[in-house]
Every structure is written in structure tokens, then in C-alpha cells.
Amino acid sequence: MNNYDLIIIGGGAAGQMAAISAKRNNSSLRVAIIDRTFALGRKILVCGAGRCNITNINLDTDVEKRYYGASPEFIREILNQFSYKDIVSFFNELGVELYVERKTDIGKLFPVTDQAKTITSLLENELKILGIDVHLNTEVTNVKKQNEEFTISTNLLNQEGKTVISNEFSSKYLIMSAGGRTYPALGSNGTGYRLAESFGHTIVDPVPSALPLVSKNLLSQELQGTKMEIEVTSIIEGEEVKTRTDDVMFTQYGFSGPAILNVSREISIQINRLAKNNVQLRLNFFPGKTIPEVTDLLELRWKRRPTLTIEESMFGLFPNKISSALLKVLNINKSLKVSEIDSQTKQKLVNGLTNNIVDISGTRGWNEAEFTAGGINTQEVIQGTLQSRLVKNLYFCGEILDVDGDVGGFNLSWAWASGNVAGKLR
Prior knowledge:
Elements: E1 2-9, H1 13-25, E2 31-34, E3 55-56, H2 63-66, E4 67-69, H3 72-81, H4 84-94, E5 98-100, E6 108-111, H5 116-130, E7 133-135, E8 138-146, E9 149-157, E10 163-176, H6 191-197, E11 203-209, E12 213-214, H7 218-222, E13 227-236, E14 239-250, E15 254-256, H8 258-273, E16 279-284, H9 291-304, H10 310-313, H11 320-329, H12 343-354, E17 356-360, E18 362-363, E19 371-376, E20 394-396, E21 403-405, H13 410-422
Parallel strand pairs: 1-2, 1-10, 2-7, 10-20
Antiparallel strand pairs: 3-6, 4-21, 5-6, 8-9, 9-10, 11-19, 12-15, 12-18, 13-14, 13-16, 14-15, 16-17
Helix pairs in contact: 1-5, 1-13, 3-13
């Protein structure tokens, strides 16, 4: 039996932060992390395309617009305790210099090394300095509580994932930070939900979020591999839900890219949780512009260059390939002279450029999703401490809770903040 004061199940971003927070707040605590994979923080390594988007300069504003699942009050109370400035200060203290990415106005912060490995290495160093034990390749099979003590049953796994030996751990406090279900190959397979349910907690059905969408449409077929900035609006059962402007990647199966990922959450819930369809996307190739504004813009171009074809008149607005594909999909003769465009053709073109509706038939899977929408029902968790309302000295943090945010550092920020708060063991 391995006896500790605190055991943390799951060694991702939230779990490591929880361990550091616990030890810094009470240096006498005996703390251990149990993780089923061969290394801590493997999902951190894929954040921000391997650069690790640590946080976002807009973290402290518009919480209700950035986060989903739990109530804004629940989320805000955690972020207020470990804010944007606290996150930056924490990593600066570890030795990480950060910079704001300027190629977009999203507000992402990255380490100056542009390597996620910088973050994982410094976190591991801090765990060693604080004397926190780490048990890798250790799968938790069962957890129970008797006489104010948690007993954690585990299997030590070999490289093939087979059990080498079974073991038990005990602790007074337990933090579950086993993650959601995204990137199962990196360790998050959803087993934490089962453990939480064994204590009576209910789970909001997890579905993949921030992921590519499946759509059989002519535009994607024509533009496979092409990327451009587009205003995208999700439409569910005829109602506009969310609009985002960012890069869209046209793919063989449909759509990907940051704009798509940021409108995918509600679509995934509709399709994967509610088993309903009637989902569409509206593509506006002139972000922020209305139909009259685009009409005026095109008419001005045509007036200045009346001898051009309709395809030639669009050069400079988009990559040439996109102009040609749009006209083909709209069934407009690309050789038509702009001086010969009638009102019906004009209306068809402008509508196709600003109000291009495509049907969405599904989403890609867990291996391509960045986040999990769903998890432990936060109504069963004490607001401000993250302690279970059902079981004393049981805490939760990170993606295992029904909290997820927009792309751009908001989910990793939740991991840091919730881990820090849970680790205080209040």
C-alpha cells in the first residue's frame, strides 16, 4: 500500500497544476500523481499545433461568450482565483517567456521557444523540486472511500498495455483530473467518468468539440486543400447559433480550420448527443459585409473594368482557384462579360458569396477533436472550491468537468485555473 495525503488521477495540465498548487500551499503534504500513460502532459505537446497556446489575453473578459457547459458564474469564480495575470506570472516564474501571436487578433499566448516541450519539461522539473511522486503506466481500475480514506486500485502496465502487477494506493484527499475523451491515443479515454459515477456523480453526455465537420458539397470537392478567411455561421433547425471569422480549410470530407472548429460545438451536440440533423453552415466570403455592401463593391469593380469577364473581375478578391470554383458551383458562366450581367445573375452571385448555405451531415471523431463538450455535472460540485458536493475531500479539475471553451488558449487556461483551485483542498 502506497500511502499519501493527496493522490491526483491524471497527469495532464490540470493534474500537474493541482499537484504543484497543493504542495505550494502545504509543503508537508505527501502528494502523488497517477497516470496511465508513459509520460505526463502528452496532450500539452499537441496544443497550439505543438507550440502550446498557454492562455489568451482576453481570458478575463466575456466569460459567458468564451465558455460553455457550466454556468458563467461557476467558471468565472475559478478564473477569478487564477486569472490571466496569475497564469502568466506562474510560467514566468518557472522560466518561460511568453509572447502574443500578432498574425491574428485572437490574443493567443505562446512560449518564445514555440515548443510545447518547453512547458512540459519545466512542469516536470517543478514536480521534482517539490518532491511530488509520479506513477506512470499506472491505470486506475477502481476507487472507493472508507473511514475517511480513499483506496485506489491500480494496474501497472507494460509497453503492450498488459497488466504487470496490481497495486493499491491510499490517500485522505483525491483529485480527479483524468481528462475527457479527446485524443484517446494520448491517454484520455473517458475512464474518469466511470470513476466519478461510482461515487454517485452524473455525467453530461460527452461529445467531441472543436473538430472538423462532414459535408458532401460541390464547393469542398472543387477546393480540396484550399484555405481562406471566411465568416462562418452555424445554423441548427433554422436558427443561427454562432458566427466566427477565421481560416476555413476545404477538405475531401467537408470543412476544417479554426473558424469551423469554433462553431462546431453546438453542431456536435445536435448530431452526436441529441441524434438530430437539420444542421447547416452559412459561408460569407466577405466577412462582416452585407449583401448590399457586396453588391455595391462588385458593381464598382464592373463599372471600372466593363470589358472583363465575370471571373476576371473577381481576381484580387480571392485566390483565382476560389473564384473559378464559386462560379462553377453557382452555375454561372465564368466567361460572361461583366457588362452583360443581368439582375438575376448578379443576385445569384452575391447570394452565393455572402449567403452560401451548405448542409452538414456529421462530424469527425474523437481523434480529431480538440476538446470534450460534457463531463461531470458541475451542479454536483461546490462553486469556488471544486470539491464534490457528494463526497467529502473529493475534487475535480480540468476537462473531466462539464466545462469547455473556445479555441485559442481558453481550454488550457481552464486547466491551469481549475487545477490551481482544486489543489488548495478547501
